Amino acid sequence: xxxxxxxxxxxxxxxxxxxxxxxxxxxxxxxxxxxxxxxxxxxxxxxxxxxxxxxxxxxxxxxxxxxxxxxxxxxxxxxxxxxxxxxxxxxxxxxxxxxxxxxxxxxxxxxxxxxxxxxxxxxxxxxxxxxxxxxxxxxxxxxxxxxxxxxxxxxxxxxxxxxxxxxxxxxxxxxxxxxxxxxxxxxxxxxxxxxxxxxxxxxxxxxxxxxxxxxxxxxxxxxxxxxxxxxxxxxxxxxxxxxxxxxxxxxxxxxxxxxxxxxxxxxxxxxxxxxxxxxxxxxxxxxxxxxxxxxxxxxxxxxxxxxxxxxxxxxxxxxxxxxxxxxxxxxxxxxxxxxxxxxxxxxxxxxxxxxxxxxxxxxxxxxxxxxxxxxxxxxxxxxxxxxxxxxxxxxxxxxxxxxxxxxxxxxxxxxxxxxxxxxxxxxxxxxxxxxxxxxxxxxxxxxxxxxxxxxxxxxxxxxxxxxxxxxxxxxxxxxxxxxxxxxxxxxx
Length: 492
Prior knowledge:
Layout: E1 30-35, H1 39-43, H2 45-54, E2 61-66, H3 71-76, E3 83-89, E4 92-98, E5 101-106, H4 111-119, E6 125-128, E7 137-138, E8 143-144, H5 149-156, H6 164-178, E9 184-187, H7 194-209, H8 211-220, E10 226-229, H9 237-247, E11 255-257, E12 262-266, E13 282-284, H10 288-312, H11 317-321, H12 324-337, H13 345-359, H14 368-372, H15 375-392, H16 398-410, H17 426-430, H18 442-450, H19 453-456, H20 466-480, H21 482-491
Parallel strand pairs: 1-2, 1-6, 2-5, 3-11, 6-9, 12-13
Antiparallel strand pairs: 3-4, 7-8, 10-12
Helix pairs in contact: 4-6, 6-7, 7-8, 10-12, 10-15, 10-16, 12-16, 12-21, 15-16, 16-20, 16-21, 18-20, 20-21
């Protein structure tokens, strides 16, 4: 492996087939703050900012922030914020160095620095990839988690917040007091109507601080909804070695993704924005049809594949999707969900056709464990929302019910061969009613989960016929294993 490290000084020595910034990074000024700097941001939003800088839009550099860990900062700071992006499809690979991130802040180390960055008048746009849990909302009820420790802390210590919501509200308050125009905040997380969800969280938090500030946020701070799409697996040591060989220098934390991307944004901004449409970003009047289709067809089937793959011992999406039984399950899931898609059957069917090709991309080691993280926060939108609609329409929704049972079974942390696996889901771990699936009866397990109101709410658990169907599906998975249970359920 090369011993020279990627940096501004070594850009000129990269192998000739590697794309790199063609602009003067020293002339770039910050116009964007991004909260939640992780692999997806670096393979998606940061790439569009890099494109804008390459077009001469020099005022759109990124100040990125981690709200928890210093790992990304520690990896990229010695590299002047540079990192490489490898886009892979089959045997093809394109490697590009991204230069749009000018600095990375670690919020817990110096929260005042992040507030100052957000309050900088040059910043016109804030983007977020903080995952569902970062909004501190009860997503089933649509309300702020007022008793969450971070909410309580941020209300008591507004100048030193912990949460994304606390940082944003404090920065908005400071800008407003100083007569600085508000920025636009674009959520890039997989939530339905994510802009409205974000705005509700900000307003509810601000209401507890200052009702006048809450009114200002509701009236003046644009939170357009957006839909993002690109499969970005976690980077492995093998990826680091292969990309270093391709670059000719080492990169402590490259990112890997598929060539496909999509970013659809509601065209509603508080201030100016980059010309992202020149890179293929779509600005539309209504994001809902796009997010609706993606959330239910892509994200929902990912949740199904992740649960099935973990139970069957398949580590990646491509491996799981190559299994005919898992493929039949996904096809059955899509058949149940497609009638709920707003764009209609033809568009939805064409979309799932593209998904099949993407899921079969064996060049991406997209781990089922990565997708399964925080699943209890994802299931309400991805599985239960279409399930409710289908049950209300009189459909048996057999595959959707099976998918819910599959997720419940995967929460037990034991695969079909009896091997343990980690369940990374803090909300699930904090739930006091979590049953022991190794000893409790199928009825007791299902009843316990139906009492998990943050996931299931109050209406679905008492819907006639749902509980017996869920118990039957769960019992089959537990007794026979996921693959045999799929074959039996789909054949029935």
